[in-house]
Amino acid sequence: MRRIVAASGVGAADVVLEIGPGLGSLTLGLLEAAEAVVAVEIDELLAGALPGTVAERMPGRADALTVVTADALRVTTLPQDPTVVVANLPYNVSVPVLLHLLATFPSWRRGLVMVQLEVADRLVAGPGSKIYGVPSVKMAWYAAATRVGTVPPSVFWPVPNVESGLVQIVRREAPVTTATREQVFAVVDAAFAQRRKMLRSALSGLVGSSAAASEVLVAADVDPQARGEMLEVADFARIAEQLDRAGLAGDVQA
After folding, report:
1. pLDDT at residue 159, as a whole number
2. Is the CATH code 3.20.20.30 the one for domain 2-171?
3. Is residue 223 a known part of a binding site?
């Protein structure tokens, strides 16, 4: 846990958002380094026990912790604006939770999350990779993501059947585009729904035909015979722009 805190770069001025604190091992480490920690925990029993754990083990820092009992996928307000996210994300919902946090709380500019190793690799994958897909592109919309370490199953209790990966996140500006994020993401979803199809076929459902999709793609300076796995996030943004100009934006709302 200290290794994770150190790698996150959390400092004395940071307000950390932690998701799924569980028994509080990482929470204690974060409280040693940060100004404050806001912990979002869906389990009422664990959420209720966490303040007592901190009060017992770090009484001088108990006031720096705020526990929010809520589903991280649904939380839309926090008692403090976080500057950094550090979390061992629940593996079954790690990508939706991470994308929700990125979209909902723009105040945090960097983060370090632990996810299943396979998911970590997908989040950081680039165009042309076999594992490049929807999580990769949507992450790239918000931030640069880098895998900075692995964590063996033996450090967990109970011991899982998978390895874990540490992903460092650094916010950056979204691509310059007249399309909305929802429009761009809808194109991304369509492109990878059947990833082995050429884009002119994969996007035909959005515009009515393969020929119409080809026209949109050519206008966006994208090869209609390319596959989604070869495109960068800016390419998807240009496609969404062309759909908008063609009056098809209403058909691609996410």
Report:
1. 79
2. no
3. no
